[in-house]
Recover the amino acids of this structure.
């Protein structure tokens, strides 16, 4: 589906089950919010802020990915990161974590709700990208780009990891599975990072309008998630091969 300009800097398009995606600019930062709107039976619009992204082009990729999310129970974002070549970093001190997460909170109007230090940290091979994850649901996935001055700059931030639970009638084909939002957001984030590197020569070189089409088409086709491995049946004594 096509994105329509609602007003300067704002884009909207229809989502599945009568919902609507919206991309809106953040104040003075150059970043954008990705929001999903659904309507109650009384006709009231309920907006759920899903993520903050570097550009509208990248937000369109996340919308396409989340529209087609679906995975078996048990998919772990830490395993996805390690499988894509990210290495777990040594545990940072509480002071360092506090400084970084305070910077995160300063970039979110609801940041005071998300302070938490029980996190795992993963870095790219050249340490130009750091991703922090947590199993507690507070900023479950947050990507930072390291500047030339070794300062952590905001990049991709997931704000609402319970998107499908908040709207149980939506995305009915995912009923009975674990929430697919977090791993899908993780896969999309990693794909965007590598697309930046391929097209623009750097993880930090954000994708602009016109560079999103390949990944949007890829995400719109959905995913072939690996099935969970089943436990082998125990061998019975006295039975031959």
């Amino acid at each position: 589906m096509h994105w329509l300009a609602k007003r300067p800097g704002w884009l909207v398009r229809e989502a599945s089950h009568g919902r609507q995606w919206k991309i809106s600019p953040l104040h003075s930062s150059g970043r954008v919010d990705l929001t999903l709107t659904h309507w109650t039976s009384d006709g009231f619009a309920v907006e759920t802020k899903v993520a903050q992204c570097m550009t509208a082009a990248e937000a369109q990729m996340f919308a396409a990915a989340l529209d087609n999310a679906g995975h078996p129970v048990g998919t772990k974002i830490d395993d996805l990161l390690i499988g894509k070549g990210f290495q777990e970093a040594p545990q940072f001190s509480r002071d360092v974590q506090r400084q970084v997460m305070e910077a995160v909170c300063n970039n979110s109007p609801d940041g005071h709700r998300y302070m938490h230090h029980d996190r795992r940290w993963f870095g790219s091979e050249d340490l130009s990208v750091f991703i922090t994850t947590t199993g507690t649901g507070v900023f479950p996935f947050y990507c930072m780009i390291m500047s030339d001055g070794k300062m952590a700059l905001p990049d991709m931030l997931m704000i609402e990891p319970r998107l499908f639970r908040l709207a149980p009638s939506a995305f009915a084909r995912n009923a009975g599975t674990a929430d697919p939002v977090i791993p899908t957001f993780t896969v999309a984030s990693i794909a965007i990072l590598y697309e930046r590197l391929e097209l623009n020569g750097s993880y930090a070189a954000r994708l602009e309008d016109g560079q999103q089409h390949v990944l949007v088409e890829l995400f719109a086709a959905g995913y072939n998630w690996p099935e969970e491995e089943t436990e082998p049946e125990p061998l019975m004594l006295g039975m031959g091969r």
Confidence is low (pLDDT under 50) at residues 168-177, 237-241. DSSP finds six helices and ten strands in the chain. The radius of gyration is 19 Å. The first strand starts at residue 4 and ends at 7.
